[in-house]
Write a structure and sequence with these properties.
The chain contains 10 helices and 8 strands. The protein is of the alpha/beta class. It has 2 domains: 187 residues, Spore Coat Polysaccharide Biosynthesis Protein SpsA, Chain A (Alpha-Beta Complex), CATH 3.90.550; 70 residues. The protein has an 8-stranded mixed β-sheet with strand order 7-5-6-4-1-2-3-8, with helices on both faces. The longest helix has 35 residues.
């Protein structure tokens, strides 16, 4: 884009949205109202992730009266990680804030995030102090996933969220120097390093409808995070192999001892249990290896992470990510 440097926004706010038609107007009004109270010019970029409702149409209508609001519409649903990447690519601000469209990330924290950025922070993470709006099962699942990823992956994502402020230097690294397609935004932004600051927040109630996240969405995100940041699960295969070896020695020792004592070897039950254990270990091992092979397969195909159907308020729309 050939926009003069003087006209570039100081602040970009990226909002990934999927089927948020009932609440996107309120989100835009709330966020733009807060941005008007902070120094500097700004822009809001809504990435419509192939919504089946009128999310993008509402963004287009809003952009007619508010030129700082812009929109990008995907050709289909590519997932939140792809929407986040597109938002970072289209953003032009010196500071880029990523926030959800359902306002569970309180926009009131934006001035505090900007203050930490002005004081030298390159990344400002908003971390969840409480998850009272989630069910007990979802809280337990999120805690387990975060603990496992933090432990095995060597990155701290405890109570982390996608609500972050990123300096332009960090955005350029994420977009230009990390070409991977199977992305985990929370992990990558922590893995980069640089000076980080943290702000705690309580998760607010959704402004409309129910969360689009399901248990399987969480599982898929966890698998992507683990395979992106650590090879530790592959070591489980070695561990299961050692367990099988120990089991084999134990069974063989028991059979030889029985034979030495002149006793009949109780074969059927022992063989069945051994076969079931070995079969289970083999299937688990193949599943772990298969996940890594699948991620490699997705990477080497080099398909774009998203396709753009249309844009509003953005010059030179691209057709691919």
């Amino acid at each position: 884009m050939n926009t003069p440097l003087a006209k570039l926004p100081d602040i970009s706010v990226v909002i990934p949205a999927y089927n948020e038609g009932e609440g996107v107007d309120r989100a835009l009004a709330t966020i733009s109202g807060i941005l008007q109270t902070v120094p500097g010019n700004w822009e809001i970029i809504v990435i419509d992730d192939g919504s089946r409702d009128d999310t993008y149409e509402r963004v287009c209508l809003y952009a007619q009266t508010e030129p700082n609001v812009k929109g990008v519409s995907f050709s289909r649903n590519f997932g939140k990680e792809a929407a986040l990447l597109a938002g970072l690519k289209y953003s032009r601000g010196k500071a880029v804030i990523v926030i959800d469209a359902d306002l569970q990330h309180p926009p009131e924290l934006i001035p505090e995030m900007l203050a930490k950025w002005h004081n030298g922070a390159k990344i400002v993470h908003a971390v969840k102090r409480s998850r009272k709006t989630d069910s007990a099962g979802k809280r337990l699942a999120a805690l387990a996933v975060n603990k496992i990823i933090s432990w095995l992956g060597g990155i701290n994502i405890h109570n982390s969220s996608d609500y972050k402020l990123l300096d332009r230097e960090i955005v350029d690294i994420l977009v230009n120097q990390l070409p991977e397609r199977e992305r985990f935004f929370r992990g990558l932004s922590s893995w980069i390093g640089f000076r980080e600051e943290y702000i705690e927040f309580d998760v607010s109630n959704r402004i409309e409808n129910e969360s689009k996240w399901s248990f399987w969405s969480l599982v898929e995100l966890a698998i992507t995070a683990l395979t992106s940041f650590t090879s530790a699960p592959l070591r489980i295969v070695t561990f299961l192999g050692l367990m099988t070896l120990v089991l084999g020695f134990a069974v063989a020792s028991e059979a030889l001892w029985s034979w030495h004592q002149g006793q009949a070897v109780s074969g059927f039950a022992t063989i069945i249990i051994t076969l079931l254990l070995i079969g289970s270990f083999i299937m688990i091992s193949l599943g772990i290896i298969g996940e890594y092979i699948a991620k490699i397969y997705e990477e080497i195909k080099s398909r774009p992470p998203y396709l753009i159907k249309s844009t509003v308020g953005i010059a030179g729309p691209e057709s691919r990510g």
